[in-house]
From TrEMBL, chain A:
Broad class of where this protein is predominantly found: membrane
Source taxonomy: Bacteria, Bacillati, Bacillota, Bacilli, Bacillales
Location relative to the cell: Membrane
Name this protein carries in UniProt: Yip1 domain-containing protein
Top-level taxonomic group: Bacteria
Boundaries of every Yip1 domain copy: 15-184
Assigned keywords, A-Z: Membrane, Transmembrane, Transmembrane helix
Annotated TM spans: 36-55, 75-93, 105-125, 137-156, 168-190
Source organism: Paenibacillus phyllosphaerae
TrEMBL record, chain B:
Species annotation: Paenibacillus phyllosphaerae
Name assigned to this protein: Sugar lactone lactonase YvrE
TPR repeat start-end pairs: 405-438
MF-aspect GO terms: zinc ion binding
Protein keywords: Membrane, Repeat, Signal, TPR repeat, Transmembrane, Transmembrane helix
Stretches that traverse the bilayer: 452-470
PROSITE patterns documented for this protein: NHL, TPR
Ranges of the NHL repeats in the UniProt entry: 65-99, 110-148
Amino acid sequence: MFPWKRELVNYPFYLIMHPFNGYWDLKYERSKKTNLILSFAILFLLALTNILQTQYSGFLVQVVNPDNMNSLMEIVYVVVPVLFWCVANWSLTTLMDGEGKFEEIFTSTCFALIPLVVINFPWIWLSNVISLQETSFFRFSGSVAVAWFLFLMFVGNMTVHQYSPMKTIATGILTIVAMGFMAFLCMLFFSLMQQIVAFVSIIYQEIVLRS
Amino acid sequence: MLKRIAHLRGCLLLAICCLLGLGAGGTLVHANDGASSYNYSYWGDTVAAPRAYEATSLYNGAKLGAGQLKNPADLFVTADQQLYVLDSGNNRILVLDRQFKLLRVIDSFQRDGKQESFLNPQGLFVTDRQELIVADTGNKRIVHLDQDGRLVKVIDSPKSELLAEGFKFEPVRVVADKAQRIYAMAAGVYDGFMEFSASGDFTSFIGANRVNFDPTDYLWKMLSTRQQRSQMVMFTPTEFTNLDINDEGFLYATNGQASDNVKKLNAQGSDILRREGYFPPEGDIRFTSLDGPTRLVDIDVADSEIFAILDATRGRIFTYNGDGHFMYVFGGIGNQLGEFNTPVAIERLGDDYLVLDQALGEITVFQSTEYGRTLNEAVRSYYKGEEEKAYELFQQTINMNANLEFAYSGIGKALLRQGEYGDAMRYFKQSMDQKGYSKAFLLYRKQVLREHFTAIMTGVAVLAVALVLLRRYLKHKGGKKNVPMEA
């Protein structure tokens, strides 16, 4: 009835339920184009979920100061960590005999984010019809989503790079360290750029005022 | 009420637009209320509030007909509204009536046939039997006189194994409870208040503060040798700065820390102060590092668990209700009426506040405004459980100050009692009261489900049947085309 349905809807759900088979298909069987389209769609949905969560979650589970709410920052909080993770992971695994290409790392990471969307999205509305005692269900399912996500990350990384479990965990930890380094370098870069710009603009002002 | 507000919302929006267009017009209305009155919102922002109290008169020694006051240190108002002023520099106590007329002066008492006087006394307390207890600091003793000024007892050099050898007893502030036990705050004592039995024997310490220290200091201390350590400052608990007692016999105490500086002590000495406000009751929560945090010097408990604390840094008086919600603030450091130089003591005379200024030797009288009176009454009725009256009064308060967030919760509780669960939820949400909201929501949910039970159940049944039929239909029609993926 819907020819695209199996590719685009059934497959992501199949992957999160059967991660070993699913990721194997992701790496060796499926078309790269649909994978990328799906990955970007998942990123978009996750950003959307987070934005809607800050805006529409129930009063009992989340109290957000409307003055501090920024949808653009919510998007950044999704995209930047994923990008950082992929770049750091790719940089490390190319040195550590990983078989994954950058595109595979990116898609496997994005597919691992599915539980965060699938579980948290309905809770945006459900959280409006629960009492304070029932909020523990909300917290519990949030933890389940995170645990599921971590497990999928683990399986995805292992499959994509064809690593042993221990090596996957080791590279995972190293990747987080590398992300820290990258963040530091970015800060350094931006602050230096800022100073250079300030320096040039001051010299320009000096010249303009003197002449 | 709320429905009418919803109707008014359109007009209000229009009015706001007009006001915004005028710009300055909107702010001018509130300019009168001044910056000295504010409140803290749930988010910790300072929001404008109308004045709750205004200074109306000022009394100095000359005006009282007693000559210049010299470094007065303490103030006390009895239940029958007599006012006792401790004129420390002149070693005397002035007794005034409600109209600030001098009734008598106490400066000496008979002890074993000899006339004795005070020396730099720092604190005084009057029991409900009109007995006077004075912390005679300079003479290192507590003097207890009966209502006619005759000596009942003198407490000096208390003996106990809890006290170190060569302990110097210098009482600074005293209170007594209904059982005639005396609690004294003594200089240089870190173990809490000293409790004396009715006969004047020292029984124990009560309610010591916690030791606060800097982690870096602690690190240095770990690294240094024993000899170096003996030269360093010891980590000791903070000293209390003042105390008061309420009708139920609970001690209210302040200490000099920047936070966690108000305590309500029960007989065991544990802190039972309710801190259910948006911020713990500790004075200013926003301040510049130049001015520094609040430094509390006095506390006063009134009826209905309302208590006020006096901040010496900025000369402000903060008042909280029994749950720890911030009600209002007034005062300041300066030269105008209603501002102080070195405020040392506050007391309540009825609903008025009296503030004693040590350096100037003056007493400032603050009287409540319409807003302050309504809010006081609202908190009182709420405390007494008169929900209907509290509801009306809180409504009036909100009309005068929409920023008073905790008042919405008071209205919400009254609505909850009346069975208006939906409205109660909205009010609780306004005051960011999650517990109240949850309570109202549970009842609201039950009510809605009961009302629409038939409709909901019918809907669910129809949906279930439809789902089954749809499934059967799809299977029948597309069963051959759809090959399951896993197969």
